[in-house]
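Quick one before lunch.
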Amino acid sequence: MTTTNDQLISWVDEVARLTRPARVHWCDGSEAEREQLIAQMLESGELLELNQDTHPNCYLHRSDPSDVARVEHLTFVCTTDPEDAGPNNHWMAPDQAHGQMDALFEGCMEGRTLYVVPYCMGPIDSPYARCGVEITDSPYVVVNMGLMTRMGRKALARIERGERFVRGLHSIGELDPERRFIMHFPEELTIKSYGSGYGGNALLGKKCHALRIASWQAREEGWLAEHMLIVGVESPEGETHYLACAFPSACGKTNLAMLLPPESHAGWKIWTVGDDIAWLHVDGSGQLRAINPEAGYFGVVPGTNAKTNRNAFDMIRRDAIFTNVAVTADNQPWWEDKGHGDPELDWQGRPWAPGNGKAAHPNSRFTVSAQQNPAWSPRAEDPAGVPISAIVFGGRRRELAPLVYEARDWRHGVLVGAGMASETTAAATAQVGVVRRDPMAMKPFCGYNFADYWSHWLSIGERTTTPPKVFHVNWFRQNGEGRFLWPGFGENLRVLRWIIDRCAGRAEARDTAIGWLPGPTDIDVEGLDIDPQTLESLLAVDAPAWREELTQIGDYLDGFGDRVPEALREVREQVLARLK
Ligand code: OXD
Ligand code: MN
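Model of the manganese (II) ion complex:
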């Protein structure tokens, strides 16, 4: 297979001259190709077979121990004007970055195969979808891209019809942390990633394209690329609302997207459209709609069990790739809180010893096709996407943020998103558990200046006939002893119901300084083991602490200087005034 697209041919030729691979393979995305790649990786040891009786077609990949998460400190946005990348990104001048990267890429594929991976982000027939081509020397990346995107012939056909495509060049290089960089050139729709095989750094369709480059493209074209799950909630009466929810990495997006209604909620159904990324467009009638650009899930494994996420637990029993989990004596995948079995070998393949830390890496992952999810929504293939009733922001906050509150209007909602903060997790290599500002859960992913991004958000609201309501949730409140106040998981449906009822004009709320909050009887807690004081603390607004928070948000916004939209500063002052 090759192509009729001259631009693509000349780019592949140019890369091949630089990287000097032993051979070039154009990926067609076929089953035969996938089988051949898996056979080759089993032979080389890049993949290990898991117990095929209990986990048919499941494989384990053990990454280099230094290469287990995204590397934000090595991730750059390279724009001509540094102000366009903004204080939220590491910046390098495009010429310098190209020079530095091309020096790394020179000859790096000697003796290896160069794979050309055409892919489409979004339903293949959707006008909202966008294409890219990733060149990589990693068969693990190819197989994962095959699960995570619409990869191969059909994507290439779109590109051959003349569509612009994002160019992503990737090599695992020497997997040396000293020679590792993830560079984005949004003005050229180009990505260069060297020295890592980890999902967010190497599966370029995901964070690099569908968020960093796409957010830039989205601003130019008038839409939004967001770090959001998309979930459909269907009532027993058959009314379905779709919510787009932004949470930072490893804060339960996958769990919420495929939530299993608790027994108390017989007749309710949850439909997963997406678990990580949403592309949002205002349609011709002024309705906000969302597509999931991805076709698979790259989810955090530890903590997944029959109670926390039965759908995910079932879906990763076959045709899944596991990265950095432990294995049992009979070669089944194992992770902390799996609920049964014992580890025999840890994620590095060493005999399991408690002194060596967790058996599965805290950021160990599964990759599976979205269609394996029992809650998968066929609307995920709808070229027009799904209509969005509400935007939900959320963080991991031990204190302060109540279980749920509603912003007064779209402008206030943009401030709620811009002021988000969350405790850091193992999804990135840095300290875990420290609270940091993570606006719209996009801190690691916005491909341009946050100040311009907030202006763009404000303008999207203006283009809708009725902007969706905006909410903030926090499943992670703790008491003084570190015990979670809210049961979370399936029970989160109770909060989603209040959100939906607010959208439909059916639910009560009380007016507070920070927005609309449910009163203690507005959320259905029947059958939950939760005492009135706990509920009260979950729904309380601590005015002095919020004043401090709003002051910190003000300082944070000031860090972005004059480009911060005036409307955002005004709403912040209004909220602060109400707190006084
Ligand atoms: C992810 C992440 O992998 O956010 O989705 O890190
Ligand atoms: Mn994510």
